[in-house]
Every structure is written in C-alpha cells, then in structure tokens.
C-alpha cells in the first residue's frame, strides 16, 4: 500500500515552492507569460490557483513579503481576468498601477485598501480591453447611419415646436417648421452632436455609443476624487475627450450626410411619418447584411462584466 503522507522535509519544500509561486503572481509580466502559454486555460492549473487561496489565511499570509499577490490571486479566480492578462497592454497597465501604488503608499502612509480599490478598477479596465484585439473597433456604417438618423430626428423635433413665421422669398410668409430655412439650419453642423457621445465598452453592440460617462470612467474618476493615482497613459484633462471611435463616427457622419442630402430633403418635405432609420438607413444607405444594429435595444446589449 502506497504511503501518500508527506514527510516533514517534503512539506517544507512544498511550502517554500508555493510561497515563492504565490508571490510571483505579483509580477504582471509573469501573469502575461502564463496567459500567453495557455496555463490559464488548463483546468488543472485553474484548480491549483483555487487551492492556493489558503494563503489568504492569517497564519500563512504573515510569511508574504508582497501581500498584493493575494489580490491578484483572488482576481485570477475569474475567467475574465485570466483572459485579460493575455494582452500586453493590460499587464503593462497593472504594472504601472502597482508602481504608482507603492509610491503613493510610501508617501502618504495609507492602508493597502487603496491597492484593492485600484485593482478593482483595473479588473473593469481589463474586462473591457480583452474583447478588442487592438483596443479600437471603429464604427460600422450601420452605427453611423443609426445615430445620424437619431440625431437628425431629435434636432427636427427640437425645432419643430417653433411658432415663428419666416419669409418664403415670394413676398409671403410660411411656418418656420415647414420652411427650407429650418431644414438648412437643422442640417448645419448636425454631426458635431455626435462628439457629445462617449464609448461605453461595457456594451458589445451599437449601444456602446451613448451620451454620458461609461461605468469604467465613472469608476476611474471616483478613484481620482478619493486621492488614488490612476495612470491611463494620457493627461487627466483629456480623459473625457472624444475617443478615436467617436471622432471617426463624426467624420463618417459628415460624408454620409453629404452623399444623402437630397434623400433627407425628400423625407423632410413628404415622408416624416416614416422613421428616418427605415427611410434612409434601411432602404437607401445600408446593404441587407449591414442592418443588424438599427433596432438593437438595451435588452440586446449584454455587458462584458457583471461587476
């Protein structure tokens, strides 16, 4: 009968090996190394990470020189974080945040609670970044047309309530809401309204474009307001500037508007009872295989994370 009981020497060696490995998890480059070599896809290795949670117990944690490894170990229990660590920008972001935390902790003598908060923020960032191979997914023709139509209808709705009359050029007057002047003023700088949008990467479909701050940016701003240093690779005052995707959608909107001005004018004078998304996007701009985003709703948009 085999004896599976470890000797005292074997227990000592296992303790040392696991102590060293757990603390290696505090190295973001090592996390990326493991992820790139598919260790995080191995069920046996995932079970091993779960087993190592015993290091969170006080009688073991007291031996750790790098206690932040426990927060990493906890995050590694989630598939999303393990997947996110495959991308070098994510591991680099984690490394930068750790360096800033050490600097902040030494200077301010705050508790490690701040580090936990930063890593929570990092997890959100990584979950979002992990879904885009290059970090940027430019707007589709469908998304551009959808929001062009929404903004144009919204602008016409705003100006349609005016009771003012306007000179019609033939010695008479007509209602402003039926006039060519209203059409011209509505079309002018229409696409600039898209610069008010932000990218909400927690949504996977066309609802990623919306006004207001994304959940990620709300979290990041909240951390900054509490005194945590967060480095995103650009100045703080530029955090809320239009993203590459939003800027591109504005440019595509201007081109689409110019190419379809006559069709929009016909809709304005005779077809306003028909939704512009249907009249313009579905019937005139988009091919059959490009129309999927037009009628997407909140129910169709599943966030990348349940945090």
UniProtKB/TrEMBL annotation:
<protein>
    <recommendedName>
        <fullName>Mediator of RNA polymerase II transcription subunit 31</fullName>
    </recommendedName>
</protein>
<keyword id="KW-0539">Nucleus</keyword>
<comment type="similarity">
    <text>Belongs to the canopy family.</text>
</comment>
<keyword id="KW-0812">Transmembrane</keyword>
<comment type="function">
    <text>Component of the Mediator complex, a coactivator involved in the regulated transcription of nearly all RNA polymerase II-dependent genes. Mediator functions as a bridge to convey information from gene-specific regulatory proteins to the basal RNA polymerase II transcription machinery. Mediator is recruited to promoters by direct interactions with regulatory proteins and serves as a scaffold for the assembly of a functional preinitiation complex with RNA polymerase II and the general transcription factors.</text>
</comment>
<comment type="similarity">
    <text>Belongs to the Mediator complex subunit 31 family.</text>
</comment>
<dbReference type="InterPro" id="IPR021852">
    <property type="entry name" value="DUF3456"/>
</dbReference>
<feature type="domain" description="DUF3456">
    <location>
        <begin position="141"/>
        <end position="284"/>
    </location>
</feature>
<dbReference type="GO" id="GO:0006355">
    <property type="term" value="P:regulation of DNA-templated transcription"/>
</dbReference>
<feature type="transmembrane region" description="Helical">
    <location>
        <begin position="114"/>
        <end position="131"/>
    </location>
</feature>
<dbReference type="Pfam" id="PF05669">
    <property type="entry name" value="Med31"/>
</dbReference>
<keyword id="KW-0804">Transcription</keyword>
<keyword id="KW-0472">Membrane</keyword>
<dbReference type="GO" id="GO:0016592">
    <property type="term" value="C:mediator complex"/>
</dbReference>
<dbReference type="InterPro" id="IPR008831">
    <property type="entry name" value="Mediator_Med31"/>
</dbReference>
<keyword id="KW-0010">Activator</keyword>
<keyword id="KW-0805">Transcription regulation</keyword>
<dbReference type="Pfam" id="PF11938">
    <property type="entry name" value="DUF3456"/>
</dbReference>
<comment type="subunit">
    <text>Component of the Mediator complex.</text>
</comment>
<dbReference type="InterPro" id="IPR038089">
    <property type="entry name" value="Med31_sf"/>
</dbReference>
<keyword id="KW-1133">Transmembrane helix</keyword>
<dbReference type="GO" id="GO:0003712">
    <property type="term" value="F:transcription coregulator activity"/>
</dbReference>
<keyword id="KW-0732">Signal</keyword>
